[in-house]
Amino acid sequence: MTQAQAEVQGIFAEVTRYPLDVLDPNAHLEEDLGIDSVKLGEVFSVLRERFSLPAELGVPREQLTSIAAVTAAIASVTGKGGSASVVAPVAAPIPAPVTAAPPATVAPASGQAATGATLLSGDTESQLIALVAEVTRYPVDVLDPVADLEEDLGIDSVKLGEVFSVVRERYGVPTTLDTPRSEMRTLRDVARVLQPYMRLPGERADTLAPVAPRPATAVSPATRTAAAPPPHRPFEGKVLFVSGSGRGLGHDIATYLADLGASVVVNSFHSRPQGEQTAQEIRDRGGDALHLWGSMANPEHVDRIFDEIEARYHGLDFLVANASNGMLARLKDITAKDWEKAYRTNVVGLHQCALRAVPLMRTRGGGKIITLSSPAAHGYVDYFGCMGTVKAAVESLTKSMAIEFAPDNIQVNCVSPGPIYGELLQKWPESERLIRQWEDNTAYSRLCESRDVSHFIAYLLSEPVKLFTGSVLVLDGGISSQGW
Ligand SMILES: NC(=O)c1ccc[n+]([C@@H]2O[C@H](COP(=O)([O-])OP(=O)(O)OC[C@H]3O[C@@H](n4cnc5c(N)ncnc54)[C@H](OP(=O)(O)O)[C@@H]3O)[C@@H](O)[C@H]2O)c1
User: Fold this and answer.
1) What is the pTM of this model?
2) Shared-domain flag, residues 351 and 431
3) Taking the C-alpha atoms of 44, 270, 312 and 343 in order, what is their torsion angle to the nearest 10 degrees?
């Protein structure tokens, strides 16, 4: 390995917190390592500083598929073999993935000087601009704080949704904010709304960590009340694997069932720090948890994970196949690659996991598998053309598994929740309009919360529930009866 490649690999390791030996320079960043475009943006903000790179590398994103490819791109820009120690003095400590951009790099608003007076207190605006630059890959100086997001900057609701999902993850911003989207026309407007949550490093120590402490997954006061650990532990001695449980619904299922006594194997792929954090959170609450990193879409990763479960626990009682990755888009925008990724993660990954789970469950005299679908698998829902089709396959596979695994006393059921408040809904194109529409179309004027689903899964996994198998259990507040 060249010196430049080793330096680039070191920066990937520091930003992602992956061990160096996982970061094979030729591995595919997204497929093999779970380093998606947002995380790559974080890596690039450090690479830019270390290698004195321009804002635009001039290399198409599609070509930056591995550490080796990133190193080559840097070398082509610097023309000096891409070694930071040759090109630029190594800067002081690597900044956390999101820190405030130095004021000098923040463009002043048109016609205004970038004085302290024009920026919000705590410089939330600078932090936000740095973060938006990472997510959108816009050069910082294009991001005029008073420009209209959509009209002047081309930052539409989808792109803004991506920004909000990163802000939420890092700063613990609630899922729903009181300010309507229509009042957030500029970055300055958005910064004003986010100011109570975003703090500069030093103002609040936890902002230095890549992921801020997790907020309650759902937002209503009812959920917060329900989050207190339950008094009994019916799953004591049971071992549970929840795929994709570093964040979102998977996180809630893992922590809820851990509170009920289960030993939980947490899994993450793109969100490794959150996976580790989830396992730590369970241990901090007195539970037993192990975090295993890897992709459900990669059979070798699945094998490694199950080898480790076998080595540690010698058996498995429950599998909750929660991991999912798919494109939310209209059919015209869905590519063959999107289909392939969605199918491989949701369907092939489920099958491969289940095949490894069965022998481990057999050693325990049986087990239970829960799969996750959506009622939108059975009718038209905006932007769900790919995922609805893939989830229909999950339901079908659930039924086949229920019959073929029955001789081993393994029950397989599918839980099909309606839209759940949280990260995924915020990523939905036109999320504001659709969430309002969906709320109106439920019988109770509210959507599911993660806790509704976790509670229902706990019921299905409980000892007395034996006869259910091959069922698709809909939990949607009546939305599919009334029509989306
Ligand atoms: N949210 C809803 O409205 C809703 C409604 C009905 C059903 N569901 C279903 O419920 C499940 C969880 O939903 P969610 O809202 O939490 O979804 P989400 O926000 O999209 O999260 C997906 C989860 O899957 C993980 N994941 C993605 N690719 C993976 C891979 N290759 N290997 C391992 N894990 C992977 C992600 O973790 P990493 O980032 O670590 O990869 C994340 O934990 C999904 O099956 C979803 O389809 C959700």
Assistant:
1) 0.68
2) yes
3) -140
Q: For residues 418 and 330, state if they share a domain.
A: yes
In-domain check, residue 219: no
CATH number of the domain to which 115 belongs: 1.10.1200.10
CA 417 / ligand 1 centre spacing (Å): 13
The sign of the torsion formed by the CA atoms of 363, 364, 366, 368 equals: negative
Span 16-59, pLDDT tens digits:
888 888 899 999 998 889 898 878 888 988 898 888 888 888 88
To test ligand 1's pocket by mutation, which of 30, 424, 449, 454 has the most ligand atoms within 8 angstroms of CB?
Answer: 424
Q: Indicate the number of domains in the chain.
A: 3
Residue 422 Cβ inside 6 Å of ligand 1? The answer reads: yes
Pocket test for ligand 1, best of 18, 164, 249 (most atoms within 8 A of CB): 249
C-alpha angle 220/226/227, rounded to 5°?
Answer: 95
Which domain does 192 fall in, by range? 103-208
Q: Which distant-in-sequence residues (6+ apart) come within 8 Å of 300 by Cβ?
A: none
Candidates 472, 230, 272; CA nearest to 374 is 472
